[in-house]
Amino acid sequence: MKSIKPGRGPSMMGGFGAVFGIVFGIFWTVLAASMTQGFGLVGIIFPLFGVLFIIIGVVNAVYNFKNATSENRYSEFDITDDTEEPDPLNQHFGGKPKHTSNVPPTSNFCPYCGAPVQHDFAFCRKCGKQLPKE
Asked: Is the pTM for the entire model greater than 0.70?
């Protein structure tokens, strides 16, 4: 069965965005610590926001880069087959949806979602599933 999974591109861009967040957090921490030195409690709390940016950035970077480079990733845009890689959402939430259809393969409608299709289409434009061959 085909499944639609997110592409590697959005995850890679999210990883680079996380690296930008880490760099921003480092600058924030250094500048806030130097500007608020001698202000007591404010001099301690204000730089901690930069540390928070760094922690969130590291977590996001690890997740996004792992998602972009691993075989079994969470996705929503790639169409993959069961023989290529399993859909992690089906593994976590159990079972694979079964699609049955009473529509003959020569119909002008998708047997899975009922959307109109042309006879030369290989995949449905609405649900993304592979159409049966005539």
From this structure: no
